[in-house]
Amino acid sequence: MRRQTRIRNKSYKFFYITGAVAIILAITLVILYRVYNKKLDDISKSMLSTEQIIGLVPNTTEDKEGEIESASSDLSRSIEEVQENMDNTIENTNEVNETTTNEEKETAPIINQEEEQEAEPKKELAFSYPVEGEISREFSVENLIYSETLEEWTIHQGIDIKADRTTVVKAAEAGMVVAIKNDPRYGLTVIIEHENGFKTIYSNLLTTEFVSEDEKIEKGQSIGTIGNSAVFEIADEPHLHFEMLKDGEYIDPTLYLK
C-alpha cells in the first residue's frame, strides 16, 4: 500500500513538472514570436524602397527593365552602408567648405594690409640750408664753369656755400649717416640718407666728431665744421660743398632747400 502511494506521488510530481515546463516553453514561444514580429516590422520600416535604391544605383544600360533588375540585385546592401556613404559625402563637403573659408580668412587680412600700405602717403621732406651764407658756386651739370683750383672748365654737381672756417654744419633733414670718408676730390665728407630716395652730401669739412656711421640723426643736428680739405677747391675761400641726390641722380639743392 505504501509502495503504491509512493508511486502515485512520483507520478503527480512528474506531471506537475512536465506541465510547468510546457507552460514556460509556451510563454517563451509567445514572447519570441512577438519580438520576432516586432523586429520584422522595424526592419521593413527602415529598409529603403525599391525606387530609392534604384535612384542610388548608377544607370549602365538604356533598358528600363535592366535598370530595375540591377537595382534589385543591390537590395542586399543594408541601410547602414547607404547612410555611411551619404555621411562621408556630407563630411567631405563640409571639410572642403571649411578649408575654403579658412583660406579666405587668411587671405583677407593680407589684402587689407597691402591696400593700407599703398594708401599711406609718403612723408614730405623739408630740407633746410646746412649753413647760412652766400652761394659762391652754383649747381651746373649741363653748362661748364671755370675752376680756379683746376684752372679748367668743368661741371659742378653741388653748390658751394661760403662760411667761416670752423662754422658748424647741420643736417638738412632727418636721416641716417651712411658714410664718413675722406674723398680724394672734396676732402672730409659726411653722407646722410633720407626717406623717399633722397641723399645729402657735406664736403670740405674740418671735423666730423659730432656723428658716427649708422647713426640716426634729426633735422638741424650738428654733423661737423667747415674746413678747407677739398683738393679740387683748395684755391677757393672756406665754404661747404653741398650735394643732393634723388634716386641716385644729382639734383640742384636750391630747388629743395628752404
What report would you give on this structure?
With 258 residues, the protein is of the alpha+beta class. It has a domain at 135-255: Glucose Permease (Domain IIA). 40% of the residues lie in helices and 26% in strands. It is built from four helices and twelve strands, in the order ααααββββββββββββ. It is rod-shaped and about 160 Å long. It starts with a helix and ends in a 7-residue tail after the last strand.
| CATH class placement of the domain at 135-255 | Mainly Beta
Give the low-confidence spans. 56-64
The CATH superfamily of the domain at 135-255 is Glucose Permease (Domain IIA)
Distance between the termini: 150 Å
Task: Describe the structure concisely.
This protein is of the alpha+beta class and 258 residues long. It contains 4 helices and 12 strands, in the order H-H-H-H-E-E-E-E-E-E-E-E-E-E-E-E.
Tags for this model:
alpha+beta; 12 strands; 10-stranded antiparallel beta sheet; 26% strand; Glucose Permease (Domain IIA)
Annotate the secondary structure layout.
Blueprint: H1 2-46, H2 50-56, H3 64-73, H4 79-119, E1 135-137, E2 140-147, E3 152-156, E4 159-162, E5 168-170, E6 175-183, E7 187-193, E8 198-207, E9 216-217, E10 222-226, E11 239-246, E12 249-251
Antiparallel strand pairs: 1-4, 2-3, 4-11, 5-10, 6-7, 6-9, 7-8, 8-10, 8-11, 11-12
